[in-house]
Amino acid sequence: MDQDEQDRALPIANVSRIMKQILPPSAKISKEGKQVMQECVTEFISFVTGEASDKCHKENRKTVNGDDICWALSSLGFDNYAEAIGRYLHKYRQAEREKINHDKKYENPHINRAPPPPLLLSRVTRDKVENPPPSPPNQSG
Amino acid sequence: MDQDVQDRALPIANVGRIMKQILPPSAKISKEGKQLMQECVTEFISFVTGEASDKCHKENRKTVNGDDICWALSSLGFDNYAEAIGRYLHIYRQGEREKINHTKKYENPQNQTQINRAPPPPLLLSRVENPPPTNQSG
């Protein structure tokens, strides 16, 4: 993968590994299946980030933060994602506060924050057949 | 990032880089913004792949391919993504066929090792999704 291509995509090995996590053990993924997902997920990041950026611009802020991402997901119709990510953000901030408190208490620079647990949204959401995330909405003229 | 976290996520540097591509030059991204997107996009892959896997299972197939991903996107309501990815897949397959033809034509081992398929152009779906309002039909 040349530098230009690398700059605009996620590593296909990582994409593939994540796909494998939800597949049955005997399943395989074709090369084109991985590439199609790689392209799709790169686009998803751009789509959500673009929406968040518009909000920041309107509010004269320069830094896109977690709340902006949550808002963008909801704005684009990804309500289930916005809810789950909101819970993740809450846990993330709790962990950050605990880290600060712990550092203050012991002043030990070697402490590492434990990562929040994975969302497992895909299992929760897929059980609710009636609530699939909608496609990005078309703007009306 | 420990191995367990790495196994279940995409590299945050790459996620950040892709986010930057669509932001104005002066914009910044907070660490939590990147981490949220990292988590969200990992979940998206699992969600779509799970749907594709169900289809393969029903059809007694073991290999998830590009068409299955396209179908899953449409099945889950991501119709715009499915359309754009379908176009990408078409271009991808054309590229693969041209590569095969070129290899057959010259049958030169040295040439073979040097042939690189040009990557399909990026989808730019995110920009297409947000054209000027006057271009939109109701």
Automatic annotation (TrEMBL), chain A:
<feature type="compositionally biased region" description="Basic and acidic residues">
    <location>
        <begin position="98"/>
        <end position="110"/>
    </location>
</feature>
<dbReference type="GO" id="GO:0016602">
    <property type="term" value="C:CCAAT-binding factor complex"/>
</dbReference>
<dbReference type="InterPro" id="IPR003958">
    <property type="entry name" value="CBFA_NFYB_domain"/>
</dbReference>
<feature type="compositionally biased region" description="Pro residues">
    <location>
        <begin position="131"/>
        <end position="141"/>
    </location>
</feature>
<keyword id="KW-0539">Nucleus</keyword>
<dbReference type="GO" id="GO:0001228">
    <property type="term" value="F:DNA-binding transcription activator activity, RNA polymerase II-specific"/>
</dbReference>
<keyword id="KW-0804">Transcription</keyword>
<feature type="region of interest" description="Disordered">
    <location>
        <begin position="98"/>
        <end position="141"/>
    </location>
</feature>
<dbReference type="GO" id="GO:0009738">
    <property type="term" value="P:abscisic acid-activated signaling pathway"/>
</dbReference>
<dbReference type="InterPro" id="IPR009072">
    <property type="entry name" value="Histone-fold"/>
</dbReference>
<dbReference type="Pfam" id="PF00808">
    <property type="entry name" value="CBFD_NFYB_HMF"/>
</dbReference>
<dbReference type="GO" id="GO:0046982">
    <property type="term" value="F:protein heterodimerization activity"/>
</dbReference>
<keyword id="KW-0805">Transcription regulation</keyword>
<dbReference type="GO" id="GO:0043565">
    <property type="term" value="F:sequence-specific DNA binding"/>
</dbReference>
<comment type="similarity">
    <text>Belongs to the NFYB/HAP3 subunit family.</text>
</comment>
<dbReference type="InterPro" id="IPR003956">
    <property type="entry name" value="Transcrpt_fac_NFYB/HAP3_CS"/>
</dbReference>
<keyword id="KW-0238">DNA-binding</keyword>
<protein>
    <recommendedName>
        <fullName>Transcription factor CBF/NF-Y/archaeal histone domain-containing protein</fullName>
    </recommendedName>
</protein>
<dbReference type="GO" id="GO:0000981">
    <property type="term" value="F:DNA-binding transcription factor activity, RNA polymerase II-specific"/>
</dbReference>
<feature type="domain" description="Transcription factor CBF/NF-Y/archaeal histone">
    <location>
        <begin position="9"/>
        <end position="73"/>
    </location>
</feature>
<keyword id="KW-0938">Abscisic acid signaling pathway</keyword>
<keyword id="KW-0010">Activator</keyword>
Automatic annotation (TrEMBL), chain B:
<comment type="similarity">
    <text>Belongs to the NFYB/HAP3 subunit family.</text>
</comment>
<keyword id="KW-0238">DNA-binding</keyword>
<feature type="domain" description="Transcription factor CBF/NF-Y/archaeal histone">
    <location>
        <begin position="9"/>
        <end position="73"/>
    </location>
</feature>
<dbReference type="GO" id="GO:0043565">
    <property type="term" value="F:sequence-specific DNA binding"/>
</dbReference>
<protein>
    <recommendedName>
        <fullName>Transcription factor CBF/NF-Y/archaeal histone domain-containing protein</fullName>
    </recommendedName>
</protein>
<dbReference type="InterPro" id="IPR009072">
    <property type="entry name" value="Histone-fold"/>
</dbReference>
<keyword id="KW-0805">Transcription regulation</keyword>
<dbReference type="Pfam" id="PF00808">
    <property type="entry name" value="CBFD_NFYB_HMF"/>
</dbReference>
<dbReference type="GO" id="GO:0016602">
    <property type="term" value="C:CCAAT-binding factor complex"/>
</dbReference>
<dbReference type="GO" id="GO:0001228">
    <property type="term" value="F:DNA-binding transcription activator activity, RNA polymerase II-specific"/>
</dbReference>
<keyword id="KW-0010">Activator</keyword>
<feature type="region of interest" description="Disordered">
    <location>
        <begin position="100"/>
        <end position="138"/>
    </location>
</feature>
<dbReference type="GO" id="GO:0006357">
    <property type="term" value="P:regulation of transcription by RNA polymerase II"/>
</dbReference>
<dbReference type="InterPro" id="IPR027113">
    <property type="entry name" value="Transc_fact_NFYB/HAP3"/>
</dbReference>
<dbReference type="InterPro" id="IPR003958">
    <property type="entry name" value="CBFA_NFYB_domain"/>
</dbReference>
<dbReference type="GO" id="GO:0046982">
    <property type="term" value="F:protein heterodimerization activity"/>
</dbReference>
<dbReference type="GO" id="GO:0000981">
    <property type="term" value="F:DNA-binding transcription factor activity, RNA polymerase II-specific"/>
</dbReference>
<dbReference type="InterPro" id="IPR003956">
    <property type="entry name" value="Transcrpt_fac_NFYB/HAP3_CS"/>
</dbReference>
<keyword id="KW-0804">Transcription</keyword>
